[in-house]
TrEMBL record:
Keywords: Membrane, Transmembrane, Transmembrane helix. InterPro entries: Reg_factor_effector_dom_sf. It comes from Maribacter litoralis. This is Effector-binding domain-containing protein. The chain crosses the membrane at residues 5-22. Gene3D superfamilies: Regulatory factor, effector binding domain. SUPFAM superfamilies: Probable bacterial effector-binding domain (SSF55136).
Amino acid sequence: MKKGITIIIAVVSIALLWYFLIKPQDYQIRVVAKSNTGTINQALKAWNNTLPEASVRQLNNLDHLEQQIVSGDSTHIYNWNIIPITDSTSRLVVDIKDAEHSFSNKLKVPFYDTDFEKQSRKTVTDFIENLNAHRKEFKVTFMGEEYLPSTYCACVEHKTTQSTKAFGMMESYPFINSVIASNGIKVNGVPFIETTDWDMQNDSISFNFCYPIIKSDTLPIIKDLVYKEFIGKKSLKAVYNGNYMTSDRAWYTLLDYAEEKNIDIEKKPIEFFFNNPNMGGDALRWKAEIFMPLADQDE
């Protein structure tokens, strides 16, 4: 009898020790989101930037992010874990902790619906509503594999972030157009972006914004303009409709497909644009063809 009581006391003591001192979160929320990992990752970062006192950082990979939100005299820490279910749905497991009042929360949460819990649910709900609204702003259609042909082109080099990529394009559009028009250069297709480096941890990219042109011996030498041969490759392809500021949502669709099918790719997306964003209009009518080159190809 005494041995049994001793074991029970020991188990309860260990459980309480774990709950109050080791358990990382004060409260956990689980919800299904109708989107893939990359889109949720980028949408969460964009939404965070709209909050008055908040910061977010990506941890080891796309599916783990830590967000800190100041609420009154507290700092609430949200650990967002994204678990893929299908190619278009994910489970979000959000672990939430109040850095200053963790012990008090753990004491109250099992017995009361606290203000901390209410605020946590509201925050997660606000993000899901924001994500659902964002999903209506674009469309991605996976097309399969396609060979992307080579072309000669005139390019402007950029180094920026994914979210500001379109602004770099908009700045370069009039510059390249004026060079082409004033020098009688013959265009040979729609403008495109050739990504040369993609830092997925920091969302930074380097890319060439290019116009396909007919190569000639009389091309003018212009500062900041580079002439080069774009080498075509067999690639995974998707069609993106929406504002070009978020065309990288198609990148993640191609990444997910490659991972699912165990296809080795170069994470250097290429985008061909069929609309001029400077002209405005209904962004859902804008079209871009997005390519992710297959790796280990003979050039």
